[in-house]
Amino acid sequence: MGAGEVLTVIDGLGLHLRPGEFVSILGPSGCGKSTLLNILAGEDAFDAGTVRVQGRREESGARKGPRPKDNTPFRLAVVWQQDSLMPWKSALGNIEFPLIVLGESPRRRKVIARTWLEAVGLTGFEDYYPSQLSQGMRQRVSLAAALATRPGLLLMDEPFGALDVYSKLQIEKAVIGLWEEMDATILMVTHDVQEAVALSDRVIMLTPRPSRVVLEKDIDLPRPRDLDALYGTARFHTLVSELWNALAR
C-alpha cells in the first residue's frame, strides 16, 4: 500500500451473538478476524457501522468498548494468543489484578483467584512467576484471570494456537468445562477447524479481506461435551469435513 491509501479490512459484516453462546470465527489469514475482536474489545476504532451490546449502541469511531443500555460496566475479558501476564506478579497476583480493578476486597480477591487457579488445574503454582511456567501453564493463568471477572463476553484470539497438542487439549477441556458452568458468551478466533467444531455452538466463516460472513454453521453436537469421546464420533468428522470443504472453495 502506498502512503495515504485506505485499506478496507471489514465491509458489510453482520454478526449476532446470542447470550450464553459459544461462537468460533474461521477465515483465511489477514481477513480481519483479529481486527473484529479488537473492535469489540474497544482496542481499535472503526470507520462505519454499529456495535450493540445489550441494547447499547457503539457508533463508528468509538474505542471505549461496549457498555450495556443502563450504563453499568459490561464485563468483557480477552484472552490473546500470546499471554499478557505481568512478569513481576505471581500466578495468583496476575489473577488478582483485574479483581483489584473491579474493587474486590483483598480477602475476597484471594479466595476468587485461588478458586480459579484450581479450576484451571494449577493448584500449587500460586507463587510461581510467568518465567517459571510453561507456555501452556501461562495460558491457563491468562484464562483464569479472564474468567475470574465473570465476564458477560469473553473474546479469545487464537488462544491455543501456540500450544503443543497435549497442552492444547487440556486447556480446551478446561475452557469447555468452565464455560458450561457459567453464563458467558464466548467469541473465539481460530484457524483450527476441529477446535471450532469441538467447542462451539456455531461457526462463522469469513471471506478474504474485506471480510464478510460467507457461512454460518450450527454445530448440532450435544452438551455437555466429552472431548475425548467427541473426536471419535462420525458426526464430529462430518461437520469438520463440511467446514474444510467450505474453506477450500
TrEMBL record:
A Pfam short name: ABC_tran
Domain ABC transporter intervals: 1-233
PROSITE patterns: ABC_TRANSPORTER_1, ABC_TRANSPORTER_2
InterPro entries from the UniProt entry: AAA+_ATPase, ABC_transporter-like_ATP-bd, ABC_transporter-like_CS, ABC_transporter_ATP-bind, P-loop_NTPase
Keywords (A to Z) from UniProt: ATP-binding, Nucleotide-binding, Transport
Recorded GO MF terms: ATP binding; ATP hydrolysis activity
Family affiliation: Belongs to the ABC transporter superfamily.
Protein name: NitT/TauT family transport system ATP-binding protein
Naturally occurring in which organism (per UniProt): Candidatus Kentrum sp. FM
